[in-house]
Amino acid sequence: MKVGVIGCGGMGTTHNLSLKALSGKMDVEVAALADCREEFLERASKQWRSARKYTTGMDLVREEELDAVHICLPSYLHAEMAVAAMEKGMHVFVEKPVCLTGEDCKRLLEVQKKTGVKVMVGQVVRSFEEYRYLKEAYEKKTFGELKSIVMQRISGDTKWGYEDWFHEEKKSGSVVLDLHIHDLDFLRYMLGEPDSFTVKATAFPSGMINQVVTSYQFGSVFATAEGIWDVCTALPFESSFRACFEDATIIYRGNDTPSLQVYHKGERISVPDLTAEWTMHDESAGINISDLGPYYTEIKYFYECLAQEREIVRAPLEEGVKSVLLGLKELEAGKKYLEGLAESRHT
Known about the structure:
Elements: E1 2-6, H1 10-23, E2 29-34, H2 38-45, E3 52-54, H3 57-63, E4 68-71, H4 78-87, E5 91-95, H5 102-115, E6 119-122, H6 129-140, E7 146-156, H7 169-172, H8 174-191, E8 196-203, E9 209-218, E10 221-230, E11 238-245, E12 248-253, E13 260-264, E14 269-270, H9 293-307, H10 317-345
Parallel strand pairs: 1-2, 1-4, 2-3, 4-5, 5-6, 7-10
Antiparallel strand pairs: 7-11, 8-9, 9-10, 11-12, 12-13, 13-14
């Protein structure tokens, strides 16, 4: 299968490295690359010597006849590029968030229905072994009924990003749609749609939300998820969860070794034996990603679905859309919370 990668920055590097590893096991080859920055384009072309190079994604889509494209651009460019690729008949792997507005959510679904191509969204947490273990324990009731879950995703302020696009809400969707969406998406994936939720938030001096804490109710299960871009750029990235079941508590701390432990009723502690499909640590992406294994796993799944003509069920377009729509509701609720705080200070 001939593939194009649009966007060769931090996330594009992650995809390129994963695709290079996958090409040794499947019929997958990157035939075209696109980036507006020459240095990033040249770096990516070292992985794929024969790949044709373009300075815009639209030129790549227009000129190439490919089986699939990976869209690894800033979030505000996802929808337009995905539409163009689908209309050209290319299957699409698009990074999260799939888009930033309700209008684009509707448009993407309409174009996919019209073209019939397959679209997968890079909600990569669905491919993390630790989160898959949690979902399986919930579904099989390994430790009884789930009672509560707390999730966190903490990062220093984003100092990467072309032309500082993360700090413009219209381009990134704030911390809610860029970072917190990982956890709200996984909660939806495991528990379904929430019955209700409440949001509290803080904001940068610019007014853009930089921290969100959402409390959800899923039937008898309550959940809390926090996402933050801290004001300090030196704060290390960390993701974590604590899931309390009737007979055990599962705790994941991404920066610890072991990262996942099960605290059983009584005093016993166990470490699940998790085996990743592929393990590689690489800092060259220049963003908050070093473990490439889950990205390889989700990309491999995408190409297996294409090769075997299977429907994408792990993170299809409609799931990415639903997570964006929930994130937009949370973003609006966060703004209302901040407005209420501001009003109370002046009364």
